[in-house]
Amino acid sequence: MISIIDLKSDKMKTVLLSYLIDNDSPYYLGTTKPSIKPNKQIKMGDDYNTFNLSVGNHCGTHIDAPKHFIDKSKGISDYDIEELIFYQPLVLERPKRSNELLEVKDLSDLDLKGYDCILFRTGFGKYRDENRDKYLTQNPGISLETIQWLRENHKNIRCLGIDSISISRYDDDEYAKKTHLAAFINDDNYGKPLLLIEDLNLTRIPKTKNSLNKLVIVPWNINGIDSAPCNVIATIK
Questions:
Q1: Is-contact 167 136, C-beta < 8 A?
Q2: What is the largest CA-CA distance in the chain?
Q3: Residues 101/169, Cβ–Cβ less than 8 Å
Q4: Which residue, among 186, 228, 226, has the nearest Cα to 75 in the 3D structure?
Q5: Phi and psi at residue 69, in whole multiples of 5°?
Q6: Residue pLDDT, tens place only, 170-207
Q7: Domain 12-22+57-236, what fold?
Q8: 62: alpha, beta or left, given left = phi > 0 and alpha = psi -120 to 50?
Q9: pLDDT digits (tens, 9 = 90+) for 93-137
Q10: CB-based contacts of 40: which residues, under 8 Å, 6+ apart?
């Protein structure tokens, strides 16, 4: 029998790592600016409230699936919910300046055995509100070599996330394509294709070692799309 004391000591805190979407939400330049407009409104004499939404599927906190760059691969709606639950997630504190990439050397001295999801906290999320142009056009990312190294040497990892607008630096389309393809391609030398979470809010996670207990990703439930805005729910030890 579990005592009341045991229950209290094992209690987990649940936090949301996704940003709310509104008309001012950041979106990757070249995609669709979000628009949320009232339709029916009680204050205008209507009997109920409704809204019209126009939101690109790469707006705000969102998850990229392989179909984003490989047309015949899995879209996010093809994933079973069990594939979107991570029981051994890890937050890595890796401060990065404008346009810097997360390199293999940032990870190679770590024991990543057993982890199934890595969230990179670069600290760049602070610019999301205080300097939007910098957040959108000077973001740090993950290098092509790091993606390849992780997939080849740590096949247990199924998901990567970052607190910037994209895993790819702005205005380098060819490199961005190569990096995403490295994450998504099926290859006998690699583990399963990765999922990628971008524009994460990692400020709610304590800066203590192995603070995450579980991570659950809940994408918008829309059939046929490549990727989707999502709620990212974490439990903290």
A1: no
A2: 63
A3: yes
A4: 226
A5: -125, -10
A6: 989 999 999 999 999 999 999 999 999 999 999 999 98
A7: Glucose Oxidase; domain 1 (3.50.30)
A8: beta
A9: 999 999 999 999 999 999 999 999 999 999 999 999 999 999 999
A10: 46, 47, 48, 49, 50
